[in-house]
């Protein structure tokens, strides 16, 4: 006999905002439902406690991902976003904290081991400091990399470039030097049509003749 197991029912957001807001109490800054997801913003210094409560008492067992967001115009320019999953409720949750360049965010490596690498990535890309992370170092960029490339004010060309020098027989670091200050392209919109003869047009004229 074949036994068919139905997929777990996806939990709705009904009542989730109210329940979690009451549970978090003074640790909560804001709560809302946005684009079909529940989004909670918690006090930065209480991030570890808030996430522990959600894990231990509301069944959000897994930290699936962490991300950073940069809003340069804000006094606290960074958002750190924790993406949680409840495997028993089949429900996802976004938890955010705000941070400035000089305000550390408590590590959550005490709650989830995978947070170590995720915090390193946010540190590498945005420069957010995670207090208590014992291995907070770059994870995606090179050891000698300068700056944090996901910041909105990071120069598009970077600060330095590296290449292998045949003369020195090693990798060398050099300041970025652009070969051209500005590149000009003389291509018109294909819907308007070019008024000059493009390379290859003469073949089409020959076929018509």
From TrEMBL:
Q: Which residues form the NADH:ubiquinone oxidoreductase 30kDa subunit domain?
A: 41-159
Q: Can you tell which superkingdom this protein's organism belongs to?
A: Bacteria
Q: What is its EC number?
A: 7.1.1.-
The topology of this chain with respect to the membrane is: Peripheral membrane protein
Q: Where in the cell is it found?
A: Cell membrane
Q: Name one Pfam family in it.
A: Complex1_30kDa
Q: Which reaction does it catalyse?
A: a quinone + NADH + 5 H(+)(in) = a quinol + NAD(+) + 4 H(+)(out)
Q: In the UniProt record, does the keyword ATP-binding occur?
A: no
Q: MF terms per GO, please? A: NADH dehydrogenase (quinone) (non-electrogenic) activity; NADH dehydrogenase (ubiquinone) activity; quinone binding
Give the UniProt keywords, A-Z: Cell membrane, Membrane, NAD, Quinone, Translocase, Transport, Ubiquinone
The UniProt transmembrane annotation reads: none
Family to which this protein belongs: Belongs to the complex I 30 kDa subunit family.
PANTHER family xref list: NADH DEHYDROGENASE [UBIQUINONE] IRON-SULFUR PROTEIN 3, MITOCHONDRIAL, NADH DEHYDROGENASE UBIQUINONE IRON-SULFUR PROTEIN 3
Protein name as it appears in the record: NADH-quinone oxidoreductase subunit C
- Recite the lineage of the species: Bacteria, Pseudomonadati, Pseudomonadota, Alphaproteobacteria, Sphingomonadales
Query: Which gene is annotated as encoding this protein in its UniProt record?
Result: nuoC
């Amino acid at each position: 006999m074949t036994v068919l197991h139905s997929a777990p029912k996806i939990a709705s957001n009904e009542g989730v905002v109210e329940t979690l807001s009451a549970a978090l109490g003074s640790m909560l800054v804001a709560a809302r439902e946005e684009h079909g997801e529940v989004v909670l913003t918690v006090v930065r210094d209480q991030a570890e406690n808030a996430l522990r409560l959600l894990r231990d008492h509301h069944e959000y067992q897994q930290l699936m991902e962490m991300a950073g967001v940069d809003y340069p115009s804000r006094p606290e320019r960074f958002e750190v976003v924790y993406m949680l999953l409840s495997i028993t409720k089949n429900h996802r949750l976004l938890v955010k904290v705000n941070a400035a360049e000089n305000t550390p965010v408590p590590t959550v490596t005490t709650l989830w081991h995978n947070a170590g690498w995720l915090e390193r990535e946010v540190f590498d890309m945005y420069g957010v400091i995670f207090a208590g992370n014992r291995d907070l170092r770059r994870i995606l960029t090179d050891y000698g990399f300068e700056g944090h490339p996901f910041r909105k004010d990071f120069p598009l060309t970077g600060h330095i470039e590296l290449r292998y020098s045949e003369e020195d027989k090693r990798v060398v670091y050099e300041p970025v030097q652009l070969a051209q200050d500005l590149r000009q392209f003389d291509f018109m919109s294909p819907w308007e049509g070019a008024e000059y003869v493009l390379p290859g047009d003469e073949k089409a004229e020959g076929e018509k003749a």
